Amino acid sequence: MVQPANGRTLVNVPTNLYADADTVTLPTTVLGQPVRVRATPQEFRWTYGDGNGLSTEDAGAPYPELRTAYTYRKAGEQEVGLTTVYSGEYSVNGGPWLPVDGTATVASPGSTLEVVSAENRLVADGSA
The domain at 2-116 falls in which architecture? Predict the structure, then answer.
């Protein structure tokens, strides 16, 4: 998620980015046995479109939390990307959770963000 949600942000003002990723449990059947697979997000890899990025275990949060915010220094259109790394576990027939070797990486659809500059103007009579 990108905040502000209108796809525009200002240069030199933090832009809030956060992932809406929770642990997911998927039921299935393998060889007639009930199996549950649990995927848990472990890492969030952000790309900001300007050559910078962040890898963190913190999913971030909606405003006013700015734990995973990023501040753009130049105006222009940027493509924000997120890849989430999941670890896995499985349980057969209600048994204990057992780890799945390796991880799965899932790329979310990108978001285009317009970074704009703003000018301050002092005027004596209140008109521009």
Answer: Sandwich (2.60)
* Domains of the chain by residue range: 2-116
Q: What is the pLDDT along the chain (128 residues), one digit of tens a residue?
A: 888 889 999 999 999 999 998 999 999 999 999 999 999 999 999 999 999 999 999 999 999 999 999 999 999 999 999 999 999 999 999 999 999 999 999 999 999 999 999 877 787 776 65
Question: What is the C-alpha separation between 82 and 100, in angstroms, rounded?
Answer: 23
Q: Tell me the longest C-alpha to C-alpha distance in the chain.
A: 80
Handedness of CA 30, 32, 33, 39 (dihedral sign): positive
pTM, whole model, 2 decimals?
A: 0.83
Sequence-distant (6+) residues with CB within 8 A of 96 are none
Q: What is the DSSP string of 60-78?
A: --STT--TT-EE--S-EEE
